[in-house]
User: Fold this.
Amino acid sequence: MSKDKFNAIWVSHSSISDFLKCPRAYYLKNVYKDPVTNHKVQIITPSLALGQVVHEVIESLSIIPTQRRFEEPLSAKFERAWTKVSGKKGGFNSEEQEQAFKKRGEIMIDRVKNNPGPLNKLAVKIQMDLPHYWMSEEDNIILCGKIDWLEYFKDSDSVHIIDFKTSKHEEKEDSMQLPIYHLLVRNCQGREVQKASYWYLDKDDSPVEQQLPDVEISEKNILAIAKKIKLARQLDSFKCPNGDDGCFACKPFEKIVKGMAEKVGINDYNQDIYIVEQDNESEEQQSLVL
Assistant:
């Protein structure tokens, strides 16, 4: 089969997580388009807005030469980025709620400023707008995703994967995130991966090293899920495990489809952004899509 990126099935940590939680949620987030605007739809919540801003500020440093990386105060960058999510644009329902989340973000940024660690060292930037590679040409499947940070070790010409976490909850042991990032880094740049870490910015002054996943096992497991996604798309079959009652993952998106959500803007990916009244949603549920 010849390569055809436009008709390939693109999978990522986010889309795979969506599918594993609820195929219906996967469909509404990754396939469905509003019949009026022809745009895909996304939901913004305070937790997602916080993560978006903190990631934007920190990741912007990777394209700046090491010696100049902290010339502009991070606090100034944070204030500028926050304007993009202020008010309803960030899913906030009150000034008090917004200020509480903004304060959390300021504390994270201060933590990075006072403990820059690997951010003060050499970094590698993958030269793709969206890092991706053909996971299976035969099945027409592409794996894609953005890596937060790649620290460069000059002595061994290798890299260190660092993923920034803004949630209060630690990544689960069975998460597919690190296996996916490991595969992406191995296939989208030429250096070996020496180690990988999560940096929980809400509580840790430095990254916490994780065990590197086995490449062959990761590739086998992720490709198996990707094939299930491909089959679901071919059959146009995306059923919620809870049936017609829906679940926490798909019900908020169903509200968009039914006109029960408020549109607050369009993001950089040309997706319509909505705020949805949540049904006693926890931060863990909000942050699952990060």
